[in-house]
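Example S7 (structure tokens).
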């Protein structure tokens, strides 16, 4: 049985879209017969958890930790992070010999994995979930074209060029890499998927929760996710008074824009129909999905949203909910307008309002659209199927390295 080591920015027990994708990959690979483990760098500390042991088991998955502190001004600190993680990977191989390194973005992880792979003579797969320079622009911590933006992009290009194979989560990222000169044959698409064990059996509407939130008997538009500026939630709140239909808006989650969005909603003429509930645990989120008639995802148009596919619309489809989303590139890869969901113009509250009104006015088509969306997720976007996209890459690379060592 071959062993795969996943090199990660952060992992369970922390909760994020990043850790949920990692959990899904590792659980599906273990079920398929691979022996898997993960290792995190020192940035696990920055995300709110200070590891106190070199190894931790969470939800049946094994994660190794890079212990110790790294300090210094940027970029010296980052180079020390890379060195610490590379050393930890090599040390782990002496205790748990693995056959392949699968590093997940950002590029700092890829650089550490590349160093370790060279020292160990093992193959490296580098997976890009988003271009982190674009993510920094999207969440307001960076600006396009800045020195940091260009450096991050250059580091990513270096890792991509030196990895044995590259995986991306969508066509947008692949096309961008091909435009940089990466051979298409080097790139595998492993799209975002849904763990149908978690989201495949939607519960009935939670009447007690509906009563608690004042939503009994109401039509509900929902947003469940992170409150970043690029998500376009200010446009969603601005849409509410433009709608002819008297719907309520349920906002579940949190993030940097939360206070500004709460203030915007209080000033809205529809303030009494906009409900914020804050963050909820992953185990509780299905209760909130059960109250929502349709999920709205109004992402703003920018490089990040055009290139990257989100996970939340797929989870909503698996939950049997209608999905309406802006027509950015990442959404167009997931949603067929008028078939599995509805698309509206990005950055345009009036067009969003018109699209949502049309959905509420045509309830006879809801069941068929929900069924088509669930069928799409089950057949094309479940982790139980997506995970096999890695298999031929793994087998080829492990075999090639074994032959090279024998020679």
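Recovered sequence:
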């Amino acid at each position: 049985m071959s062993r795969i080591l996943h090199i990660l920015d952060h992992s369970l027990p922390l909760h994020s879209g990043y850790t949920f994708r990692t959990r899904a990959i590792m659980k599906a690979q273990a079920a398929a017969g691979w022996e898997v483990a993960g290792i995190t760098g020192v940035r696990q500390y920055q995300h709110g958890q200070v590891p106190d042991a070199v190894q931790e088991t969470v939800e049946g998955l094994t994660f190794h930790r890079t212990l110790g502190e790294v300090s210094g001004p940027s970029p010296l600190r980052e180079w020390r992070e890379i060195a610490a993680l590379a050393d930890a990977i090599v040390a782990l191989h002496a205790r748990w010999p693995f056959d392949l390194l699968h590093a997940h973005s950002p590029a700092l992880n890829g650089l550490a994995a590349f160093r370790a792979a060279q020292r160990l003579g093992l193959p490296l797969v580098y997976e890009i979930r988003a271009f982190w320079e674009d993510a920094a622009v999207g969440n307001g911590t960076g600006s396009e074209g800045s020195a940091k933006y260009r450096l991050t992009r250059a580091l990513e290009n270096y890792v991509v060029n030196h990895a044995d194979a590259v995986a991306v989560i969508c066509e947008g990222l692949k096309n961008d890499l091909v435009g940089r000169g990466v051979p298409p044959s080097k790139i595998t698409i492993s799209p975002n998927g849904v763990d149908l064990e978690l989201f495949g059996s939607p519960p009935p509407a939670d009447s007690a929760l509906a009563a608690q939130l004042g939503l009994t008997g109401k039509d509900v538009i929902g947003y469940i996710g992170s409150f970043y500026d690029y998500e376009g939630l200010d446009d969603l709140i601005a849409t509410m008074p433009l709608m002819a239909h008297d719907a309520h808006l349920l906002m579940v989650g949190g993030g940097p824009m939360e206070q500004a969005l709460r203030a915007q909603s209080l000033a809205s003429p529809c303030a009494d129909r906009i409900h914020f509930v804050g963050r909820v645990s992953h185990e509780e989120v299905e209760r909130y999905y059960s109250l929502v008639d349709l999920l709205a995802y109004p992402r703003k148009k920018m490089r990040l949203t055009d290139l990257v596919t989100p996970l939340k619309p797929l989870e909503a489809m698996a939950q049997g909910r209608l999905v309406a989303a802006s027509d950015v590139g990442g959404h167009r890869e997931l949603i067929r307008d008028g078939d599995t969901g509805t698309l509206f113009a990005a950055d345009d509250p009036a067009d969003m309002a018109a699209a949502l009104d049309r959905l509420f006015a045509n309830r006879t088509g809801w069941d068929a659209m929900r069924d088509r969306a669930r069928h799409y997720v089950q057949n094309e976007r479940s982790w139980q199927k997506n995970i096999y996209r890695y298999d031929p890459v793994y087998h080829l690379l492990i075999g090639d390295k074994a032959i090279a060592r024998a020679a």
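Notes on this example. The chain has two domains: 3-193+383-406, 196-380.
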